[in-house]
Structure formats: C-alpha cells, structure tokens
Amino acid sequence: MRKTKLWLVVTAVILAMTFVACGKDETPSMYTVTVTAGEHGSVTPDKTNVEEGGSVTLTITPDTGYELSLLSVNGDDVTDDVTGGGNLYSI
C-alpha cells in the first residue's frame, strides 16, 4: 500500500525565560500549548498548560494509510526529532 504523506504543524507557545527573584517567593509562569494538525491525522499533547521550565510530549497519530511527513514547532522543522516509532515528540 502506498502511504500518503501527512503534514502536521504544531504551534507550541512555550517561552524560555529566566527570572531573578528579588526576595519574593514567585510562582512559575504558565503557558498554553496549542496544536494544529493537518488533514489525515491528529496531534495530542499530554497537557494543554505547562509551567515555565516544564515539558510537553506530543502524540502524533496519522490516519490509516498515512505517515508523518513534517512536524513543525514554532515554524521550525523538527521531524527528525520524532521518537517512539515516529509517534512521539517532546518539547
């Protein structure tokens, strides 16, 4: 069976910031993770909110007969960083 390519775009709003506490007990900032999958597949984050310095794992599920062709995070091609048999990506 010929596999059709699946294009997925992930917009992960995760900012790496360093803050210096000035004698106050600061709470870490929270960020929202937004994913958008193209046709013929889905991307599911293990969480939709992540605190500063945290990580998110994306599960990539192409429809039957399709395979991942491109995974883009904030405009960068990260397809080569996908693990787990081509189905997992950690930010």
Key traits:
91 residues; three-stranded antiparallel beta sheet; mainly beta
Characterise this structure.
By secondary structure, this protein is mainly β. Helices cover 0% and strands 48% of the residues. It is built from no helices and 8 strands. It has strands at residues 4-12, 30-37, 41-45, 49-51, 57-62, 66-73, 76-77, 88-90. The chain has a 5-stranded mixed sheet, with no helix packed on it. Strands 3-5-8 form a 3-stranded antiparallel sheet, with no helix packed on it. The radius of gyration is 16 Å and the shape is elongated. The chain starts with a strand and ends with a strand. Mean pLDDT is 74; it is low at 9-21.
Helix content: under 10%
Shape: elongated
Largest sheet: 5 strands, mixed
Q: Please give the radius of gyration in angstroms.
A: 16 Å
What pattern of helices and strands is seen along the backbone?
A: EEEEEEEE
Give me the number of helical elements.
0
Structural class: mainly beta
Mean pLDDT: 74
Total count of strands? 8
| N- and C-termini, Cα separation | 32 Å
Fraction of residues in β-strands:
over 45%
Reading side by side through the largest sheet, how are the strands ordered?
A: 4-2-1-6-7
Uncertain ranges: 9-21
